[in-house]
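TEACHING EXERCISE
Course module: macromolecular assemblies
Task: Read the component lines below, then compare them to the predicted structure of the full complex.
Student: A.B.
Group: 4
Components provided:
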Amino acid sequence: MHIPDGFLSAPVWGAFDVLALPALGIAARRAQRGLDERNVPLLGVMGAFVFAAQMINFPVGPGTSGHLVGAALLAIALGPAAASVVMTSILAIQALVFQDGGILSLGANIFNMAIAGVLAGYLPYRLLAHAHRASAIFLGGVLSVLVSAAFAFAELAASGVPMPRRLLLLSMGFFLVGALVEGAITLAAVGAMERLNPHWLRAPEQKTSPALRWIAAAALLLAVAGILIASRYPDGIEHLAAPSAPAWLHAPLAGYRVHGIESPWLRRSLAGAAGLILIYGACLFAGRLISRRSA
Amino acid sequence: MRYAAIEQWSRQQSVLHRRDARAKIGALLAFLIAVSTTAPASRIAFAGYALLLAAAIAAARLPFPALVRRAALVLPVAAGFALVLWFSDERARAVALLEKSFLSAVATLLLVATTPMPELLRALEILHLPRLLVLVIHFLYRYLFVISGQARRMRLAASSRGRLQFRSAAGALAVLFARSWERASGIYRAMLARGFSGQFPALAPPRWRAADAAFFIAAVLASVAVRVAL
Amino acid sequence: MPVIRVRGLRYRYPDGAQALDGVDFDLEPGECVAVLGANGSGKTTFVLHLNGLLEGEGSIEICGLGLKKQNLAQIRSKIGLVFQDSDEQLFMPTLLEDVAFGPMNLGMPREQAVARAQKALELVGMGALLHKAPYHLSSGEKRRAAIAGVLAMEPEILVLDEPTTSLDPPGQRELADLLRALPQAKLLVTHDVFFARALASRAVFFDRGRIAAEGTVEEIVARFNWTQR
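Instructor-supplied answer key:
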């Protein structure tokens, strides 16, 4: 799921680098709660823990094993903002030191796993943990992997990587299995952790604002829509976004087309990026609108 | 551990090792962007990028085969997608995908193999990455060895007692979590004992020399030249 | 006047177990005292009270300063704790920065803090390794670096918790030589009777949260049969 450099087209990695930075800034500020840096050792060591935890193999069926990815577990243990910072640190070290994921595509990988993956892993816990704790934790693990994968596929599709439908279904099936395994590991690990020390895990907050429910629903809808669009029409995002993309969005990147290089797939990816930005902007706007009304 | 080699490389001496980390980060970005936006069909351009990298590896006095072997770690993933492209009759893009991902990996490796992690992180902080993030990355890297060592010993102990069951694997994970948590508390205690009051002291800023500017400009010009001319 | 003066110290863990049950203790300037006792007898808990990392009942004075919130910063500069696990103590990117961490927390300007750190590293024989990362050091080097980190704050008291852990015999010898040369008053929490005998002029023996006995290391060892053989 770590996208290396060379896979995404310039508008796509560019858009996600531009998106990831402010999102990270917000997460960092929230994780810090003021100016204090006392959390730093805990967050860093937790990152090392998730790294090291991948050495522990969980048997899944005969002869195969899975390991923890960790976004949902971190979100449940540390809260979503801190978990985003920790996941980002993990991705940065993986890209720099272990050649796992690219540098230009780091923004996309951060968005997929440290932002969308963490939020998807946390929301079920936040929303459902009072009534159905176990299923909320399991669902968090499942969704964190599924949502990350869906975004990765959408980005690749927007970059013009062809997605034959059969192949796409096959790999989504593969990721679904992986997601179920992550859910099971997260649930088992949380259970074992609580038996050792119940104080480690944050209790989900008592009141859930309607804004969160809306954002959760929108995120789910988006993920599903993304998969459907990507599988039905490889060019779907272009159809979706092209007519509504404002002209200025094309302008800074128009140079590529002037040179006449690989224009068909570049134009497609540009449209894809524009579509993603529009969707993201719409979500942000809607989220703000809803939270203001509920406040 | 796999990153021991990089640690060792990053502490050698060479013209490239001496350059300011900010100059190297800038050069890397320029190179990666040039590679990323190169048309799949321009074979000569990719040869040009490869030559640039080879020159840089030679200047850094790094072992060529070992570096290339490490960068080749990206190839399995890239090969999978290249196959998809190939059978979609986009052969030029299939080959270009392999070339781009491999060249990018070599370039990234070159940065971390010529820059010790503390210098790299300091540069990122100066370049306005969120400070909390930089500090967390530092602590992650610092304790990666320590916690992984613990995990490896646990795995060894477990495998000497046969195959781990799902439940006991979860138990092992929880124990590893507990030990990590205790270690974090220990670190925080040691910080308090030495007077920590909520803020890490600011680290000394590195000095930017004319040679750093020259290297940065040369790297950008070379990348742009290959991208535009070849 | 003693540099450490503890009276009637009691502490209960959050789970209710009584960890310290009325400890009285004095440490004179320049003195080196060994703290012996079984695992779980309260030695480390005691030490963590001395700079306010744990808060129990009773009174503690460090160099004449009562242990109170407003004195905490000053007390932490006067009493240096070296923990059992050096990895937990060496958390900054390079040795020099790590050792300068304490002085900079005291509000010292960077140049002055760095000069102090250099001096402390030279004192422990590591002046040549200033820019090394902590994870490149041997166990003995890590221990000495951790001690330098505390010395850079120019404390009047050194407290070392199990300082010989994970050191090979030559490393232990070097550590003993180093500690002997340092003028500070010292408190050694240790299971290593041989090491205690080599350095300490006095020993106290902890048992179930109290100091059960006091005397020379020899006397304590004889009285509690505190040997491996």
